Amino acid sequence: MQPAIPENVTLAIDIETVALPLDLAALPEPVVAYGNTKDPAKRAEKLAEAQRRRHDLAALDPHCSRVLALGLAWPDGDRLLTDCLLPASLAPADLSSTEPDLLARAWYALSRAAHVVTFNGAAFDLPFLRRRAAIQRICPTNAVTIDTNKYRTAAANPAPPPGVIPHTDVYQLLTQSEVGNGTTNPLGLPRTLHAYAERLLGKLPPYELDKGALLSHWEAGDIDDITTLASWDAATTLQLYSHLQPYYP
């Protein structure tokens, strides 16, 4: 079933991705800096930490992971509506076979937008969706093309080429005016969606969910946790954009 999104809306999206055990098993063993550590228990701890880091990184690579959920948010008058697209089957073993349908619904949702809003979507969400679609051979609905030029800080600043859906990456909008200009972070301040939501909106997530453990939540049947996370992230992204829009016309 396609999401009930009106045409020509400003649509915020957030994707949640997971690395599957089969993909992780195909990766080479991580390089571990043991140094002078001889104690077997400490060496085992270092190896386990390296494997956790590799797992977290693999969930961000389109060749090692799958789209698990897509959070959506769009305005409806004074209200903000949300939806969360999930695989057709809730069985973890079916994630690979059900992803094509999820990708098709994701591109349909994007095709309804007059303007797409993301948080770090120019670097992650949109390229990830494109690559997974290419791997799964899912052509975007209506040949959807979304602008991913990170230097376009607003929907019409400058306008993207004809036929390209405007896109605002709120992360780029914020970090380009901070120390380091979005390329480095010398002050070490957190630049996460949750951190900006707290600073600019006074808003905190309903709970913190370790994104590295999303597959475990899925396998345990904690679907509501995942849908809440994806929908909250999409809604907060849109709220940040609305808050910043008067200052970045």
Give the key terms.
249 residues; Nucleotidyltransferase, domain 5
Share of residues in helices: 40-55%
Briefly note the structural class of the backbone: alpha/beta
Number of helices: 8
Give the class-level CATH name. Alpha Beta
Radius of gyration: 19 Å
- Strand arrangement within the widest β-sheet reads 3-2-1-4-5
Low-confidence segments, given as residue ranges, are none
Number of strands: 5
CATH superfamily: Ribonuclease H-like superfamily/Ribonuclease H
Main sheet specs:
5 strands, mixed
CATH topology: Nucleotidyltransferase, domain 5
CATH architecture field = 2-Layer Sandwich
Supply the number of structural domains.
Answer: 1
Topology of this structure?
Blueprint: E1 9-19, H1 21-25, H2 40-58, E2 65-76, E3 79-85, H3 95-111, E4 113-118, H4 121-136, E5 167-169, H5 170-175, H6 193-201, H7 214-219, H8 223-244
Parallel strand pairs: 1-4, 4-5
Antiparallel strand pairs: 1-2, 2-3
Helix pairs in contact: 3-4, 6-8
